[in-house]
Model the fold of this input.
Amino acid sequence: MPAYEPEFEQAKKELVSTLESSSLFEKNPEYKKALEVVSIPERIIQFRVVWEDDKNQCQVNNGYRVQFNSALGPYKGGLRLHPTVNLSILKFLGFEQIFKNALTGLNMGGAKGGADFDPKGKSDNEIRKFCVSFMRELSKHIGADTDVPAGDIGVSGREIGYLFGTYRAIRNQWEGVLTGKGGAWGGSLIRPEATGYGLVYYVEHMINYASGGKESFAGKKVAISGSGNVAQYAALKVIELGGTVVSLSDSKGALIATEGKGFTPEDINKIAALKVERKALTAFEGHSYNYIEGARPWVHVGKVDVALPSATQNEVSEDEAKALIDAGAKFIAEGSNMGCTQEAIDVFEAHRKSNGGNAIWYAPGKAANAGGVAVSGLEMAQNSQRLSWTSEEVDSKLKGIMKQCFDNCLETAKEYVTPAESEFPSLVAGANVAGFKKVAAAMHDQGDWW
Done:
């Protein structure tokens, strides 16, 4: 693996280390070959995107689609538009997506794509022109039964609309080729909320299991990072369930609630409006929160019960992990992909092993934030049937998927990494083993390895 792919290397190491520390390879030594095969993408598409800005000047960006694994179904995973996008990041995201999609129980493979284009500061017209040029090339490689992209950082409903319209015009067909579509033209209700809601539903099962059914989110103090789609809806669901949200953040700094207070739904709606306008949290006026420039929330939130990193990769460091434990956090679950560094995960897992029922319990993003792609899969199902389900139907299916995902991670962990007396099972090991086993078995049946 090239040394210039640090994010992918980290994601692969995280999977390998948990598989090796489980009894999987001892019970099934042939799976080592499956790991070797699954770690190489089936296909990487790289292309140039040439577009015209509002000054009629030619601009060019790098476009990508990493089609990592299709053993379980069509490739499925988001498109990210951000200046940091490169192959290492997209390979890490696509690799994680394989196992995340497997954990939903739906028939979806894993992929990721995007471009090093920065939507910030661009006009609607410039974004439309970029999306048209990007889709001209991407359209050759995707389809409802081949590869179904979705949104990710920098790709909201607006961009999905431009991309879908371009695909429809080029291919002369309407099909469910993208998810996150508008409600009037094939989108699913609850899709914008799904990742945040699903994250909270997953943690609800963690709290219920750890407390023997005696506790819930009611009365819990919850630290959340980020202020985008995932963070907003996670915060609203936490508040709905009786918890108190004490932080949100963006790339420029963190908003921390003062003692005894928490974010209100009105505050979150105002922040959501700022995000639509692509403004920073510094534009949030008339609030009583402490704004800490250049900071993440974790060392500033004081005593908390739950931490939900929901911004971007590697946003919880080793020192911040220790600070969360010192702050009394009992549950940490990733709303972002690979939100914790490997060093942070090691801190959480060591604490879990040595502190029994008083330990912090960590859930990885491939399980905890799978709600978003799960509802994308439900959107695909609705498109295939030319149906639209109600919010209640979709939310009920999402709850069922997150419960099944938690139970799968829990039972797989008990089977392959037997916990000591009073020790919580390792959800990171459970998620990795369960997701990997399902994909590897499908690949074996189809002759991808033997």
